Amino acid sequence: MAVGTSREQLPLAARKKNQFLNHYMENFTQVDQEEVSTQTVNSAEMEYIETLKEELISTIAKSANWFFGIAGLTVINTLFSVFNKSGYFILGLGFTQLIDGAIISAFGSYNFVALFLDFIFVGLFVFLAFMAKKMNKWAFIVGGVIYFLDALIFLAAKEWFAFGFHLFVLYILYKGIMAIKAYNQINA
Fold first, then answer.
1. How far apart are CA 4 and CA 130, in angstroms?
2. Side-chain half-sphere exposure of 187, counting CA atoms within 13 A
3. Which spans are transmembrane here (predicted)?
4. Whole-model pTM?
């Protein structure tokens, strides 16, 4: 809201946009198209709409950046396996840890096959990050499904902390999906 402007002084359309943003940020529920559309739009209302769009784009970018984080921590977990170090980052992928464990138990040591398979997953998450930043809802959905399946690995292993963090990241990815939906509704 502009400095020195009270809520009552805002045009009706700007108040509706403000209600929409509050509704979006608090509930992440479905948005009625009537809440977003207006009959007349003046320059202050357009500025407000642009600010709202920028906030949604920021939410999408922040959500998409988690795919980069997952990929980066998975690389570090892979390096732990390569150098036979114990420990792992809980936000990294459990799939790669399973692959590494299976290769090590089958061949006695970490090898190129495990490294190749690990980096397929890393490359997939980097690709999903770029696609999600371009506001492709499918990237969030595909990444979310893969990360949910990955969370089940930690659930089965009774790694509660890692499982909880996976659920937290899934919530952030969901926020990205909802932001894309809201952005598209504003532009409709």
1. 40
2. 10
3. 64-83, 113-131, 138-157, 163-183
4. 0.75
* Helices and strands, counts by H and E, the chain: 7, 0
Which residues, 6+ apart, have CB-to-CB distance to 66 below 8 Å? 169, 172, 173
Confidence of residue 93 (pLDDT cuts 50, 70, 90): very high
Contact 36, 185 (CB under 8 A): yes
pLDDT at site 151: 96
Q: For residue 96, which amino acid is it?
A: T
Alpha helices in 28-136, H assignment, sequence order? 33-36, 43-82, 94-107, 112-133
H or E element, residue 165: helix 160-187
Q: Which two tokens stand for residue 112?
A: 């190129």
Query: Would you kindly state where each structural domain of the chain is located, as residue ranges?
Result: 9-23+32-187
